[in-house]
Design a protein that fits this description.
The protein is mainly alpha-helical. It is built from 21 helices and no strands. Helices cover about 80% and strands about 0% of the residues.
Length: about 550
């Protein structure tokens, strides 16, 4: 008994390690490229289903795929309608694990592990080392299966344990156990793969396996639900569609099994080969998910409308004055594959607050809207809060092994947070100038006011384009940004010279001149910070003109 138990637990540990190690290594090696494709193929729901299946088959985790979806929807870069096809495809793609387990690859496991370990030890390039980790995880998975298969074969010698497995003949118990186990490990791939081995050892009947699979499908929704709990309404709806897909599928398939269970078992057995229980479970898992997709995909529009009714529009949790993070933080599910995406969108949120402050501060300066001063100061406190929280989160994130391209970007994100926060400080400086201007009765000349407005409009333009380039990582705006920077630098020099001439002619007071000069210098520095933000996505900063 002791030997059997240690062999079973050792095999299970190796299997779980191999699954996790292989999935995470796949995401780190090709996470960004796969993620970009995932975000670009969602316009056509049929193509989205196909790619969702392929994507999940590659990374071996529907949980990772659906969490990415929720993250994209929460960030506003994917709509709820676009996410439906990916959700359906992910449910099909996750069955690839049980298909692999059903194959006889255990004899090759030691050789696969050796190859992976050799490359990890002696490989030089980071990408090759990540590929080696995938190979090592794949081999560990099958070595674990080999251990578990030997241990499970001995369980039939223990009547008490066989009596426990006999309880699975009750469909309700089988569904409940499938749900609970999958909820605990948060992966239907793991539980169904273990079921493949249990069925092959004759411990679980074929019909019980079908009900267990239905329960595991419901439990597989856990990662998506957890990711959506503290997200936007659209992200919650995305997670709920994943739940609806599996709940509706369970109800429909359970009804079919109630009336035609023998036909279903015979049909799947015929497709799998008579007496091949491993292939039976794996094929049943794939067929169930495919069937659910076929019956629900034509109704996807109706599912979206239904979920909008169940989770109606209303004030988002981000409303009000309470300071909080929307895309990152301790209340969010952390995933290496989406961490940088979430951080970027939190920085974008902070940057848009700064943009609002810039506009309000200039309105206070030019149109005497001094009620904006308090608004800017309060929002600046929020911006400082976000700056500190994002920086701390970046420090924590940097401790994890991220996808290669994401890890390379972490350093630049620290600098972007600093640049954005400093631009926010300049907005506060403008409000202080507005108060001083009002209190001392200072007036700009018409020419000076027009010059400040001209530079300010260029600064708003370069800032907006820089933030867009930072978020999209698309250098399309780089030419315009460089032109605007040069324009702002030239105007600062020209307008300073014009300002000196006005002062020498007595058209401008010394106090007005000092404020004018400070504002002009501040606006030019905002332009410099904006350029830094844009350049953060470039591998090499463009050379300055001599």
């Amino acid at each position: 008994m002791y030997t059997m138990l240690t062999e079973l637990l050792s095999g299970l540990a190796l299997f779980l390690f191999g699954m996790k190690f292989m999935s995470e290594s796949l995401q780190k090696a090709a996470g960004e490229k796969l993620r970009d494709i995932l975000n670009s193929v969602t316009k056509n729901k049929y193509v989205a289903v196909l790619f969702g299946a392929l994507f999940t088959a590659v990374i071996q985790s529907s949980g990772a795929t659906t969490v990415m979806e929720v993250s994209f929807v929460n960030a506003g870069i994917m709509t709820l309608e676009q996410s439906v096809g990916i959700t359906f495809g992910a449910n099909i793609g996750t069955t690839i694990t049980s298909q692999l387990v059903s194959l006889k690859l255990t004899a090759a496991a030691p050789f696969i592990i050796f190859i992976g370990a050799a490359i990890i030890m002696f490989g030089k390039k980071p990408f090759m080392r990540k590929v080696a980790e995938i190979i090592f995880g794949f081999g560990s998975l099958f070595l674990g299966i080999n251990f578990m298969t030997g241990a499970l074969g001995s369980l039939q010698d223990f009547p008490t344990i066989m009596h426990v497995f006999a309880c699975l003949e009750n469909p309700f118990v089988a569904v409940l156990l499938g749900f609970v186990l999958t909820f605990i490990v948060q992966s239907s791939s793991v539980t169904v793969s273990v079921l493949v081995l249990l069925a092959d050892s004759g411990l679980v009947g074929l019909l019980s396996c079908l009900y267990f699979i239905l329960g595991a499908n419901i439990g597989s929704c856990t990662p998506a639900v957890m990711a959506g709990l503290n997200s936007s309404k659209e992200a919650k709806r995305t997670a709920f569609i994943h739940v609806m897909f599996n709940v509706i599928g369970m109800v429909v398939i359970s009804a079919i099994l109630f009336f035609a269970k023998d036909w279903v078992v015979d049909t799947v057995s015929a497709l799998s080969g008579v007496g091949n229980s491993k292939r039976f479970v794996a094929n049943a898992d794939t067929l169930f998910k495919t069937f659910q997709c076929l019956i629900l995909l034509p109704c996807s529009g109706g599912l979206v409308k239904l979920v909008r009714l169940m989770i109606p529009e209303g004030e988002e949790e981000s409303g009000g004055t309470e300071r909080k993070l929307l895309y990152i933080g301790k209340n969010r599910r952390f995933m290496e594959s989406t961490a940088v995406i979430d951080i970027v969108h939190e920085i974008e949120r902070m940057a848009r607050m700064v943009q609002d402050n810039l506009i309000m501060s200039m309105d206070a300066l030019f149109y005497d809207k001094l009620e904006n001063v308090e608004k800017v100061q309060q929002q600046e406190l929020y911006i400082d809060y976000l700056s500190n929280e994002i920086t701390e989160y970046l420090v924590e994130t940097n401790k994890y092994q991220l996808p290669l391209s994401d890890a390379a970007r972490i350093g630049s994100l620290f600098h972007v947070v600093i640049d954005v926060e400093r631009i926010g400080d300049h907005a506060v400086n403008v409000t202080e100038a507005a108060v001083k201007k009002r209190d001392r009765g200072i007036r700009f000349t018409e020419e000076g006011g027009d010059e400040l407005t001209d530079v300010f409009m260029d600064v708003l333009d370069i800032y907006d384009k820089s933030i867009e380039m930072f978020v999209t990582e698309n250098p399309e705006n780089l030419g315009e940004i460089t032109y605007l920077e040069d324009n702002i630098d030239r105007k600062q020099i020209d307008y300073q010279e014009g300002h000196v001439r006005r002062m020498s002619m007595g058209r401008c007071s010394i106090e007005a001149g000092l404020i004018f000069t400070d504002l002009l210098i501040g606006l030019e520095r905002i332009g410099d910070h904006a350029v830094n933000i844009a350049y953060s996505v470039l591998k090499e900063k463009p050379e300055e003109d001599a």
